[in-house]
Amino acid sequence: MPGDDRDFLIRQGLKLRHLRLMAALEETGQISAAAAFLNMTQPVASRLLADLERLLGASLHDRHPRGITLTPTGRLLAARGRRLLSELDETGREIARLTAGTRGRVHVGSVTGPALELVLPAIREARVTLPEIEIAVQVGTSDELGERLLSGELDFYIGRLHDSMDARAVTLRPIGPEPISLIVRTGHPLTRRPGADLSDCLRYDWVMQPPGGLLRRTAEAYLLERGLPVPDRIVSTSSLLLTLAMIGGSNAVAPVARSVARFHGGRDGMDGRIVQLPIATDMAVVPYALVQPADRAPSPAAQTFLGLIEAKLSPPAARAGP
């Protein structure tokens, strides 16, 4: 038997029912009992055993008055057969879980607000109810996420359709506007000033996205529409971590998604070290949506996780407010 010919036994005629028979023979020690276990007649079992010994060119059993005893070769084949059959059974179960969407890998993208408001709660639920689904999350801007979606790196994302994207390449499920809050550190002078308004915020440094960022454009347009100038002193950064660090350690003001302000103002985030100003509470970024590629269906695992997110969606009208 050539050592490098990995399918030699298969080409010789070895079949799974041969392996099942050997495993049953080792378990029962009798051909009749093994045959009954496998739901076949004893003559059929005896013929299978003889065929197997012939194709292997080796004796697999010794007879005695009470039944049979497997030879060392027979025990080896039975042990390997049980292992192979067990792996096949597990493969079948894994395929069933993959098909049912309870196992697999999901690649999700999201802009910052929905990442905290929708994706994070869905992940927490999946860790309990779907522990075999592996979830990879990419948080970024809509244009970055759109490129990743079209290149096949994401199953879907929550964000907006970038101007450069071909609308025919995707499907959209509108979710709603993304409210914006102005945040400052706890104890900021504006929190101690009754009746403070948007113009008062302009006396302080602002921390915002780099020029051209959607949230920055929204905040600047909101100011201009109300006859106010763009802040004179702006620190530009795309890092939420740096934004929060600067807010927590200075008198700067920052516009962020309201869900981000709520999260980091609570115990899960900065534990009350930042607060939302009761100013410009109607500021909101244009509506975002759940975006999927039009030319490929989600995998069962992606569809399952998508269902968790969709279950958390409220009617758009309910999400548009503070």
UniProtKB/TrEMBL annotation:
Signal peptide (from-to): none
Pfam hit, one: LysR_substrate
Domain HTH lysR-type, first and last residues per copy: 14-71
Gene3D superfamilies in UniProt: 3.40.190.290, Winged helix-like DNA-binding domain superfamily/Winged helix DNA-binding domain (1.10.10.10)
Keywords linked to the UniProt accession: DNA-binding, Transcription, Transcription regulation
Molecular function in Gene Ontology: DNA binding; DNA-binding transcription factor activity
GO cellular component: cytosol
SUPFAM superfamilies (UniProt xref): Periplasmic binding protein-like II (SSF53850), Winged helix' DNA-binding domain (SSF46785)
InterPro entries: HTH-type_LysR_regulators (IPR050950), LysR_HTH_N (IPR000847), LysR_subst-bd (IPR005119), WH-like_DNA-bd_sf (IPR036388), WH_DNA-bd_sf (IPR036390)
Taxonomy, superkingdom: Bacteria
Family per record: Belongs to the LysR transcriptional regulatory family.
PANTHER family listed in its UniProt record: HTH-TYPE TRANSCRIPTIONAL REGULATOR YBHD (PTHR30419), NITROGEN ASSIMILATION TRANSCRIPTIONAL ACTIVATOR-RELATED (PTHR30419:SF8)
Record's protein name: DNA-binding transcriptional regulator, LysR family
Biological source species: Tranquillimonas rosea
